[in-house]
Structures are given as structure tokens and as C-alpha cells.
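Hi support team,

I've been running sequence recovery on a batch of backbones for a student project. Most finish fine, but this one hangs at about 90% for roughly twenty minutes before it completes. I'm not sure whether the input is malformed or the queue is just slow. I've pasted the C-alpha cells below so you can try to reproduce it. Let me know if you need the job ID as well.

Thanks,
M.K.
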């Protein structure tokens, strides 16, 4: 059977001509021997992952420490089929995008949430106490992944028209270059409009209780994901989604639902910070000094914009906070790499002394 026909079942999972090229390059670079088969990671477990292949779903081994990068939900991987111990992942095909946050342990490492994502839907409960600063964090992560963010203002039917207009104005004012779509908590309101902004592989992110699973079910047209209640006192919910899972959606989309993110540390944001705060960056071009910190320098265009009421002081504070966190992560990363290099040289010298006492 010709290979393009063999891989045709993967089209519903997002396989296209670009993945053909990436797969061919991957296969040429892997000296695994035997037959290799492409597959998409649907769910990750300890030491294994569930994948979809042209031959159907399988659970395959992912030996710890043997794969760099380690597979995450949404990855395309190569499987070796003729291994005596059963099919196993031999490598990850070069990614288009990757959505990641700083490790919740405080270590200078990243935690990957999903790979090869085209659209990041940030679910924000219209009735919740989610702050604009937290929305900005989600958007920075989304922009930095290389995907297009969209804000879904969930549970919008729980507000009256005036309340909803107020929330929409505040979120749209800070979500620069991002569509903000109100959707219903229980009905189909807004889901059709939201679909118009989605393409390819879509990942849902947001705080616990933001209504991600309800939204995922609405996009799927079926109750696949469990939904939970939210405490009325503080608007916080429980984790009803406990693992990341990739599911094809009728109409050509691929959906990844994720657990709620209570901790949202940032790492190397790069373009993500610039895109999220494009308004601050645009005004800062007119500052007198190119290295202006926007604190007390004369001729600071950003401070002038705040004084004129064109920009909020909260917006600048949020920008500075993410800048500081990014700088801290970069310094920790440099220190970690330096420590790793020192430890590696110690290991080499120790091995040399053992060989030549």
C-alpha cells in the first residue's frame, strides 16, 4: 500500500503536507533500525503514552531519560514496531509549537503542557474573580508558544447585559490583538462564533472552575469530559480534568483539554511578553532613553500615557512583574546550566582518576 494511503487515517488528527516533510526528515535522522510508524500522542502516563497510529490506538513505552524532548500531549512521535518488548517511542518529530510554563516546584525548568498547537483558548469565567493580570499571564504563555490565542469568556449567561458589557470592555481592553468571545455556561450561545476563531489543534487552558470541560463538551457535541461545581464564595473550582487529553472534533479540529492551572509561573517569554503588552511596547518606542525602565526617567512616554489616562498603571505594573519573573527565570537557568557543567567536569575527572590511579 502506498505510504500516503497508509498515513491517511492520521489526517483527522492534524497530519498534513508539512508533517509529511517533518516525518521524512525525522526518519532520515533516526538510526533506530526496523520499521518506523508515525503516531500522535493522545495522553501521557509515567513511562508510557497513549498514541493514535494509522493502525489504531496503542499504549507504547517511553523509557525515562532516553528521549529528548520527552513526549507530551500533541506531539508526533516515531514508533519502532519490531522491538522484542513491544512498540516503543524512539523520538519526537520536530515540533511546530510548544505551550509551556515554569515548573511549579520553583526549579529553573519548564513544564510542557501541549505541543503542536495552532490555537490556545484561554477560558475566563465571566462570573469569577479572575484578575486581568492572570489573563495577561495566560496570553503571554499562549503567544510565546507560537500559537494564536483566543479568550473565551465562559458563563456569560450568568451576568446581565450591563455586567457582561463591563467585563467584555475590561478584558478586550487588555487582550491586544486577541478575539474575546462570550460563551454560555450551559447552552450553545457563542460556541459557533468561537469556532470561527479556531483552527488546527486547539488547547483549552484556564484556572480551575473556568468552565474548560463544559466548553470542550460543547465543541465536541457530546459530554465526554467531566464537569464540576464551583464554590460561590470565591468562584474557585475543583480539578475535574486531571490529565491532558487529545480528541478529534467533528469538523476538522483537534482538541486538547487540560487541568486547571492554579500556579502560572512564566519562563522565557520572549515574543510572548511583547505580543501581550504590544500597547506598552508601542508607546515605549517614544521614550527619551532606549533603556527606559518606565519608573522615574525624564521623557518616559509610558508614564506620560498613564498620566494622560491613555494607559492604566495596573497594566504597567503587570508588564514589570512579568519582566522581573522572566529575568529571574533566566538567571536561574544560567545558574543551573553552570552547575550542570561543573558536575559534569567533576564526573569526568573522577572517572579519569579511577582509570589512572
Amino acid at each position: 500500500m502506498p505510504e500516503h494511503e497508509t498515513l491517511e487515517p492520521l489526517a483527522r488528527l492534524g497530519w498534513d503536507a508539512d508533517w509529511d516533510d517533518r516525518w521524512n526528515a525525522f526518519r532520515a535522522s533516526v538510526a533506530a533500525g526496523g520499521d518506523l510508524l508515525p503516531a500522535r500522542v493522545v495522553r501521557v502516563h509515567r513511562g508510557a503514552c497513549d498514541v493514535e497510529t494509522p493502525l489504531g490506538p496503542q499504549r507504547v513505552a517511553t523509557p525515562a531519560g532516553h528521549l529528548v524532548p520527552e513526549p507530551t500531549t500533541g506531539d508526533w512521535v516515531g514508533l519502532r514496531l519490531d522491538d522484542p518488548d513491544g512498540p516503543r517511542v524512539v523520538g519526537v518529530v520536530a515540533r511546530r509549537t510548544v505551550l509551556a510554563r515554569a515548573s511549579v516546584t520553583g526549579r529553573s525548568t519548564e513544564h510542557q503542557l501541549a505541543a503542536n498547537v495552532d490555537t490556545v483558548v484561554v477560558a475566563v469565567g465571566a462570573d469569577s474573580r479572575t484578575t486581568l493580570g492572570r489573563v495577561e499571564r495566560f496570553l503571554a504563555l499562549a503567544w510565546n508558544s507560537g500559537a494564536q490565542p483566543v479568550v473565551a469568556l465562559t458563563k456569560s449567561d450568568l451576568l446581565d447585559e450591563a455586567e457582561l458589557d463591563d467585563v467584555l470592555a475590561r478584558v478586550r481592553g487588555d487582550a491586544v490583538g486577541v478575539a474575546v468571545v462570550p460563551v454560555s455556561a450551559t447552552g450553545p450561545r457563542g460556541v459557533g462564533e468561537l469556532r470561527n476563531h479556531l483552527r488546527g489543534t486547539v488547547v483549552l487552558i484556564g484556572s480551575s472552575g473556568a468552565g474548560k470541560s463544559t466548553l470542550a463538551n460543547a465543541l465536541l457535541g457530546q459530554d465526554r469530559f467531566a464537569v464540576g461545581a464551583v464554590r460561590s464564595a470565591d468562584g474557585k473550582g475543583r480539578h475535574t480534568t486531571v490529565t491532558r487529553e487529545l480528541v478529534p472534533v467533528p469538523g476538522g479540529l483537534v482538541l486538547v483539554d487540560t487541568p486547571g492551572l492554579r500556579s502560572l509561573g512564566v519562563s522565557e517569554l520572549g515574543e510572548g511578553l511583547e505580543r501581550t503588552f504590544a500597547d506598552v511596547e508601542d508607546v515605549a518606542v517614544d521614550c527619551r532613553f532606549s533603556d527606559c525602565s518606565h519608573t522615574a526617567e525624564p521623557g518616559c512616554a509610558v508614564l506620560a500615557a498613564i498620566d494622560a489616562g491613555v494607559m492604566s498603571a495596573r497594566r504597567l505594573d503587570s508588564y514589570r512583574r512579568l519582566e522581573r519573573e522572566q529575568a529571574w527565570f533566566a538567571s536561574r537557568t544560567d545558574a543551573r546550566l553552570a552547575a550542570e557543567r561543573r558536575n559534569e567536569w567533576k564526573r569526568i575527572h573522577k572517572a579519569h582518576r579511577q582509570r589512572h590511579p
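--
Follow-up from support: It reproduced on our side and the slowdown came from queue contention, not your input. The chain is about 35% helix and 20% strand. No action needed from you.
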